[in-house]
């Protein structure tokens, strides 16, 4: 597992050295490539660095939203578990 994987993003080939599964690295690269293409269609930027920064911000936004949603879901599950524990305690004490 791991090694060097050559990926293509926005028409450029990049050798990526990673300990990750090569298929997973290729999947990540395909996702980033898709985001780069979508960003260039939406806000045509000829500067690749500027485009990469825009995509990085969009990916960071996706990550933060997913993390917030997961945290919120975890909080809801914790509250439900506490309510169930109270119901069980009430049932056992009755």
Question: What descriptive keywords fit this protein?
Answer:
single chain, 94 residues, alpha+beta, two-stranded antiparallel sheet, 2 helices, 15% strand
Short synopsis of the structure:
The protein is an alpha+beta fold.
What can you see in these coordinates?
- The protein has one domain (3-93).
- The chain is built from two helices and two strands, in the order ββαα.
- It has helices spanning 22-42, 48-93; strands at residues 3-9, 12-18.
- Helix 1 (22-42) packs across helix 2.
- The radius of gyration is 22 Å and the shape is elongated.
Give the topology, please.
Layout: E1 3-9, E2 12-18, H1 22-42, H2 48-93
Antiparallel strand pairs: 1-2
Shape: elongated
Cα(first) to Cα(last) distance is 58 Å
Could you tell me the number of beta strands? 2
Question: Into which percent range does the helicity of residues fall?
Answer: over 70%
Q: Which class best fits the helix and strand makeup?
A: alpha+beta
Describe the strand arrangement of the main beta sheet, using strand numbers: 1-2
Radius of gyration: 22 Å
Q: Provide the succession of SSEs.
A: EEHH
